[in-house]
Amino acid sequence: MAMNELLQYTIQGLAAGSFYALAALGLAVIFGVLGVVNFAHGACYMLGAVVAAVLQDTLGLGFWPALLVVPVLLFLFGVVIERLLVRWLVGLDPLYNFLLTFGLTLLLVDLVKRQYGVSGLPYERPEVLTGQIEVGGVGLPIYQLFVFGFSLLICALVWLLMTRTRVGMIVRAATERSDLARALGINVGRWVTPVFGFGIALAGIAGVLAAPFRAITADMGSNFIIILFAVVVIGGLGSIVGAVVAGFLVGLVEAFGQAYAPTYAQIMIFVLMAVVVLVRPAGLFGREEAAR
Amino acid sequence: MSNDVTSGATAHLDLPTDDVHVSATTPRRSGLRWLLLAAGLVVALALPWFIYPPIAMDIACWALFAISLDILLGYCGLLSFGHAAFWGGSAYCTGLVAVHYGVPFPVAVLAGMLFAMLIAVPIGYLSVRATGIYFAMVTLAFAQMIYFIANQWRDVTGGENGLQAVPKSFFGIELVETESFYFYYAALPMILLGMWAAWRIVHSPFGRVLVAIRDNAPRARALGYDVETYKVVAFVLSAGLAGLAGGLFAISHGFVSLQEVNWTTSGKVVLMAVLGGIGTLWGGVVGAGFIVVLEDYMASSGFEGIGIVTGSVFVVVVLLFRRGIWGTLAHHLGRRRQAGTRD
Question: Where would you find this protein in the cell (chain B) (predicted)?
Fold first, then answer.
């Protein structure tokens, strides 16, 4: 019995962690290359879900095509935001871009609220992903397994992109030693806009995955972004691996917390963060000097 | 023992240039200062004659709140995105003391203020280990923890219903207890005292050390200043003033909602401080006045989506007016003055 519960909550936690891992990955990549902490990341996650719901409602676009179309749309959105706004503040104190994207968050959330109201938008999940799988007498929701598998796939693809391609190498170099990469003649500036769009697109994928699973409201990103900050503080802001690992870790803490101590579930995440700040201020996977 | 994540990270905030401070000691400048102070006092005293008194009280509370934030942001270079924890924490404590003990409201507010300082000690101790953008994220997360506690601890805080029927006891003086117009004048001295304290803090030798740490932490450390301790003390003092403002806000409204500890409140006060001008202290008053009046106007005109307007204001200010309203004025005034003395 206890074993079954463990399995159930583990899957639940990994599914919840998938959203954090994907979004935190985007946050980490953006921070690495631009030095910008994107407060609007939660709002972009929300936009991913809302856009998926609206496309399904108006054009009848299904879940599978949405997984491709919505990230592309959010990529373009990210490119526009970077070109129009973020770009002008990159050379200044990073606090300004933090504030800028915070303002953007207020703007986006209330725009969506005005347009689509505060009650959740409906979203139908595909037939294949409903129901449960029996594993050793435990019914595991197929959708949770799918979310976990799919996000792992994306994380693996991003990892391959980062380690096996020239583009990835440049982005990694820019993330870890921006000045040195520049000194070696790499045009880091060229990659700023696409990387920002890419990071936003990752938040968008998390949003689409969340659409059939969570209530789609304008406020769905508000709590999400704060947990996401805890995730990147735990993982180490500059670290790509840290973002993913901490994302799943926080998901697990949340799921087990909700199961065994529902009152303290949310608080436990912040306690975990406090411990990390105390013991390893740069995060579990961060280098002391990387956190600028 | 320093576990600083960053060392030597230089801030590029658009802060008032130091020559403004230097010129502040010249006689002409100090004459202007007395004039401004007198004008400010007149405005503070006259406010409830022109504005609906509860709104005037809101402006006063938010102004002190924004000033408390600017002590950290402008003079330590630390952006606290979790100040709602102290404003709201004090609001709850003040409300509870007022409800259960029926003491005169200044006593309840004082209790709330002390409570805010008390929770600021561990939060500050942990947060100052992070600098820059890290500090903002860590304070935000800790404040959210306070929010969850307030939300879960229903028996005490009332959860989503909030804390209702907070009395305005004031030594049995009925006019103050029932009429918001007179309450404003009873509460104003505490606000002004808080503002004076903020002014004293940043213009004291302690405040100068804070600025030194902001501008070059390794150097301040090398000069023998305990950087972390200074930051924690500044954090706790700032939290105390935020708590003073939050406690008065709770009494003024007779009600404490979860909204007070929510991160949107932290964001709102940051907006006010930035709009007024980072590192100007008094800019917070201007920012608070602007935002409170704007929100009141929008609420009364039935416009939903205040965030669309405040969000846009935020974006525009950060992109184009990083000095803020007060900072821009002071900058141009200072330049004209300099040009004048050169003649």
Answer: Cell membrane
In chain B, what is the straight-line distance between the N-terminal and C-terminal CA atoms, in Å? 52
B6 inside 8 A of chain A by CB: yes
Cα gap A23→A38, rounded to integer Å: 11
A113 touching B, CB under 8 A?
Answer: yes
Report CA A175 to chain centroid distance, whole Å.
18
**A253 Cβ contact partners less than 8 Å away, ≥ 6 residues apart:** A13, A268, A269, A272
Element (H or E) spanning A131, and its range? none
B73-123 pLDDT, tens digit per residue, is 999 999 999 999 999 999 999 999 999 998 999 999 999 999 999 999 999
The answer to whether residue A222 neighbours chain B at the CB level (below 8 Å) is: yes
Which pairs count as long-range contacts for B300-305, CB under 8 Å and 24+ apart, including other chains? B304/A113, B304/A114, B305/A110, B305/A111, B305/A113, B305/A114
- Measured in degrees and rounded to the nearest 5, phi and psi for residue B256 equal -120, 125
3-state secondary structure of B302: coil
What does the pLDDT read at residue B21?
Answer: 42
**What CA–CA distance (Å, rounded) separates B305 from A119?**
15
pLDDT tens-place string over residues A168-211: 888 778 777 777 888 888 887 788 899 999 999 999 999 999 98
* Amino acid symbol at A96: Y
Q: Would you kindly state where each structural domain of chain B is located, as residue ranges?
A: 51-262
Nearest by CB to B145, from A103, A233, A267: name it. A267
Residue with tokens 């023998």: B224
Q: CB of B117 within 8 A of CB of A246? A: no
Give the mutation candidate from A46, A83, A93 for the B interface (greatest B CB count, under 10 A): A93
Mean pLDDT of B127-145: 88
